[in-house]
Amino acid sequence: MNQKKQELQNYTSLARAAIKHIHPADKNENNIQQVAIQKLLNQLLYNGDDGYFFAYDDQGINIAHPKEPYRIGKSWWDLEDDSGNKIIQQLISNAKVGGGFLQYQWSKPSNQSTSNKMSYSTYLEEWQWILGTGVYLDDVNQQLASLQQKIDQHINKTKQIILIISLSSIFIIFLLGLVINLSNKKKADKKINELGQKIVNLQEEQHRHISRELHDGIVQILVSIQYSIEATTIFLSQSKQEKPKPLADAEKNLKIAIQEVRRISHNLHPRILDELGLSAGIAALAKEFSKQTHIEISFTKPKLRKLLPDNINISLYRVVQESLINIEKHAKATHITIDLAIENKWLTLTITDNGIGFSGSKKIKRGRLSSLLV
């Protein structure tokens, strides 16, 4: 919107410079000079059919209008738009205080439809006229929609990169495991563990990097766009203008996009895990899961902040994350208990629920994942 305002001021300055050489003379010559200005303004067009200049005198009589010549010579002092705004009066008032902007509804020449328009008007002292031009805001909304499309494409591209990395990692693990098992089982077990951990660390590092890029890059751009839209909404409200539906839709879609990017960023790698440790990470995960699924979660944790190395933290966090997903899909539970405890230098993680378990002849097996603190 600031860019469009600057463009309107620049266009008006150019038009004013174009007619500057024509000065009012005596009454007999004024009509001739006025016709000359009309012809000149009729030729100053831009942006196809929608960019043109108009002129009115102090009494609201139209002096020049290339797209609506029937207005010339008539007074439009009391002209109102659908919102009851005195368009010509406000344009004259803005011009006399040094120039200003006004939003109102006006017919768009290119498609003959009524659209929201923002105009800038300035005052010509020598003629006691106002000179102005405007831009139709549906064109601005089209630019916002184009920007939204580019953002969506960027998000989809990021998802594709994550998928390719994951599939490539799985393929590499498979090939390495096959080669090592054929050569030596004992050495293979050791190397697979080492390589597996490295790949996990690489994946998490890549996830951490992509998550940071999404959070610090795309989200900040989206938020800045949201602030611009909110500023536009405030401006419309102050001008007693109704917010256009395309603008409201763009604002709604933008909020959804911000939430979606933040969700993807958080799922890739929760930053709280790096900053506050495993206990805080699981607590935040449980709170978000309970909010989304309405399944009550009780979480017991030790009164310690950060005990484990990053690879153990990530592994246990992913175990809890996957367990909650499985419970939501299959268990039909209403309550989940997560117990993280330290006993005799052992860290014990226990996840239980009150779900339906396994049906038929399958036996329910309860396990416990433990990790020794070193």
TrEMBL record:
Pfam assignment, any one: HATPase_c
Record localization: Cell membrane
Main location: membrane
Membrane-crossing segments per the record: 161-182
Mode of membrane association: Multi-pass membrane protein
Signal peptide (UniProt feature, chain positions): none
Annotated Single Cache domain residues: 1-89
CDD domains: HATPase_UhpB-NarQ-NarX-like (cd16917)
Domain of life: Bacteria
Alphabetical keyword list: Cell membrane, Kinase, Membrane, Transferase, Transmembrane, Transmembrane helix, Two-component regulatory system
The keyword Ubl conjugation belongs to this UniProt entry's keyword annotation: no
Protein name: Cache domain-containing protein
Organism of this sequence: Colwellia maritima
